[in-house]
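Narrative progress, year one. The postdoctoral researcher (J.K.) led the effort to move from monomer predictions toward full complexes, under supervision of the PI. The following entry was the first complex the group processed end to end, covering 278 residues in total.
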Amino acid sequence: MNNSMGNKVAVFRREHFNAAHRLFNPDWDDAKNEKVFGKCALPHYHGHNYELEVKVTGKPNPKTGYVIDLKELSDLIRREIHSRFDHKNLNLDTKEFKDLNPTAENIVIVIYDLLRPHIDKKMDLHIRLYETPRNFVEYPV
Amino acid sequence: MSIVYLTRAEHFNAAHKLYNPAWSHEKNEEVFGKCANENWHGHNYELLVTVKGQPDPDTGFVFDVKRLSVIINEHVTEKLDHRNLNMDVEFMQGKMCSTENLAIGIWEQLKPHLPAGVELHCIKLYETPRIYVEYYG
């Protein structure tokens, strides 16, 4: 048996969803929102193709050789994330962002919290979220 | 005659929905599915504008690509970026905001602003990394 068999491996699943949003703090007036958030605060929303990378790290199960069945991870992401956010307005159509500014930072934390309870506690979970091909965030760090 | 094709890539983010106001809500859902979501969804659009012409013997340029970028920004991306395509964009008023129609609209915005000798060849517009359209006028 290979000595490296008990080592941790990271596996990744990539998914994507499209959504509209705007960045807006309801405690501020329009001028302050525009000053802080610029075009992202425009009232009629804009949108993105979000690309999501879900990383699960742990020791492969000796019986299957899997850290996690990637088909099951894909189904989980579809059920918990895609169904909530794809082709939605994050501000108007989701309960998660009813009172939370849908910045990439807040979205990545929400995605982590939605997935974490469904993944074996022995495994580490790490999320990377691309808002555009040039802007992306990671959680936890 | 040595014709060369020159392309400038730009990008913008926008919200839209596919919804025909002449149809019922049910018919819109049947035809456009999730894209008909009442409260909009959105995309990172990638725009490739290709012009063609003969390189100028003095500069070697088909067209100064910085000037091309300024024209695209002034007449297209400034009007589309971080906007709602259905509500905020004058040149899409009264049209369905499909990627096809948006590419035609962009062509019509740019064509009058290119100098003689520089011919608009193609608008290639990505709605997602996996979906794009091309329009050749």
